[in-house]
Amino acid sequence: MFTAILFALYPALDAVAYASTANNSDVSKSTPTEKVVKLREIKKKYEKILVGERNIASAMSVIGPDQIKHSSSAESIYSLLKQTPSVNEYQQNIGPGTPVMTVRGVRMSQLAQTLDGIPMTDLLSGGQGAYLSNNIGTVISNGQISGIHVYPGVAPPDRGGFATVGGTVSYTTKTPPKKRYADIFTKVGSFSTDTYGFDASSGKIPGTDGLRVYTRLSQTQTDGYIQNTPARYTDFLFTAIKPYDYGLSKVTGTVIYNTAHGYMISAPNAVAQLDKYGIFYNYPLSEASTLQRNQYLTAILGDSTYINSHLVIGAKAFYIHKHSYLAGYLAPNLISESYPYQVNFNNPYSGYGPLPPTAASPGVIPHTYDPVAMFGSYPAGEAAQINISGNTTIGIAPKVNIFIPHNDITIGGLVAQETAGPGGGNYFYGTLDMPKIYGYNSYGNPSSPTNNKQQRTIYSGYLSDKINLLNNKLHIEPGVTITGVSTSNYVPVNQYGTPPQAYTLSNYDKEVLPYLGLSYDVTNKVIAYASYGKGARFAPVADYILGPSGSTTLAPGPETVNAYETGLRYVGKHLYLNFDGFLQNMHGMFSFYTNYLTGYSQYANIGEEQMKGLEFSGKYELNPEWTISGHVSYTNAQYMNSFSATVTPFEGQYGYVFAGNPLASVPNWLAGLRLGYHNHNFHAALMESYTGPQVTTYDLPPTESNPLLQDATTPNPGVKLAPYFLTNLQASYRVPIHQDHLSSITVSLNIDNLLDNHYYLHYYQAYKEYAFAGVGNPYAEAYPGMPRFIEVGLSGRFS
Q1: Fewest CB atoms within 10 Å of the CB: 201, 240, 291, 353?
Q2: Largest interatomic CA distance in the chain
Q3: Which CATH fold would you assign to the domain 2-792?
């Protein structure tokens, strides 16, 4: 039973395709009666063959629908991942607010994320987008997914996703249930958190030969647990499935539209202020604010066609559009060299100077914005900033499954293109309500269709095989992925030198990524496995610069990883155990140095990092009602050489690291324990998590003789963030009604951080910067963790 729970969400092959491997006759040539019989056989054999996924040669963790369904509104698709080994995650708001995550020490921007097998990450910059964009809200929300698979390291090619040097997180959307119903739900929680909405399933629509549709709409609003960080999220999902060819094939369609509107903290507040005013203190919005309004639209159209017992073909076409609006303000009296703290990281806090019309818009705007003339000083005239960005991705992901004796072959690919803009712009001025005028107070022209037009096209193909030998005891998984990336970036303004006119940066990269996995059934329940895989992540488009000749493009190559794993897995009827060790050597990590006086940056591939560790996870069904599961992991992540680097997972701090330094914000130890109970209509779970000590960072003095080290952030092994435990409680009870059309009412209770522990998620020491230079004495800054969160829910089912 546990095996079915563990692997039921595995998305590699649909039920019909996978089961058909055991059927030697062509179902399409059978009579209708024979087809019905054979379909029943296929379904039965599929349920058995799912157990075969226990032979995967890589570590894998699954978060199932039960864990997702009973999560609170305070959680997100990222916080759920802390229930798996080696994942550290935190966020600064209720729900999907500015998530920060590492897997085995590898940060979110270096991970692949897929949605129903298509890339949901930003192809231009990696992760969910560039720094300080798309930090509020997500492409898909908790209520829209049915499962998550986590593949740390390098996964087999057909599950690896695009561009990763440390892992793949695979999300699966909800599919239309076979039962017809409608649910209306609401939740009320701490910090003025309210959630309400509905979902509905059509079941099999009569007269449509099996067509089913499902839709869900929900809205959450909250004041946030940190002062002055209100947020509102609206999520919409529509999905449909149309079987054909007696259910052996199917067409699927999905539309997701999510919006988010919220205030965030672009930099932690000073610990001295948190000690004085309370750990959850934040500046009033009239003094300092960072607002984001984000939109995410996703559409996926898929088909899986059964040809015969040896061949299944399919493809998914997709469209993803993201739009991000960021508005930041900092009161002029806080923009001063004498003020002891740096309040908002992203807002102007020193003089940019007037925008030269010869660079921004030659011959169009006769006068430039002069902050001194308009507001009397640079700080007063540059107290506000607006960034507008957007990108659109279109693509297709074909896939062919070939089943022959002793071999399951998968051939697949990805052709996708992401384009940034139009409609973007960066504006600096005295107040947020000033007009946005290109050439006056803007570096970008929002009305130009080619303004800062970044574009990246992906051509990727993979071939993988699973060879079953020695009476189906030895399983060999060879595979290879070949990826080519063509990138261009049209820059309308050369801000830093000659030539002053617009120019285009372009580059082409390619990588060949091999994979080899081996697993052996030592007994019917014990499996030994080992794997090697290479992964690559391509440089963000923003890292491309104009060469010294004025006509060449200088672009970093991909950063790569060689990942090794070995492990032992036990899969029994009521017990599952997995123990593995890993080594990940990362090469050519992106390095850059920015001259703040000129704004000019240089980029290179010179960084070396290494992650190694051990992981253990398991689950045991004590009886049909009680289950216990847990995990513990140890990670040692360190820099192998010295180089200029982005030092923290959120990428807001960059500076210099030294050979032998541990990676900051990566706990050596992580652990979790879950005790679950389910009996008829009652569900309950008690969860405990442990996050071990983490190395923090500090800024080197601005008096350093080496300009690379002046005010540079670097790991601080001598100061570690204190470890913390968190206890969460979930409970729900379904009350049968069966009156009129109301069939049941469900009451739920969630208490996150049950013991109300106060702790810090992120901590470091820094110098305040003014005019892009460190000033004053160093001081500590920190993000607080969420206190106790209590939420009560009520839902009614109509059928």
Answers
A1: 353
A2: 87
A3: Maltoporin; Chain A (2.40.170)
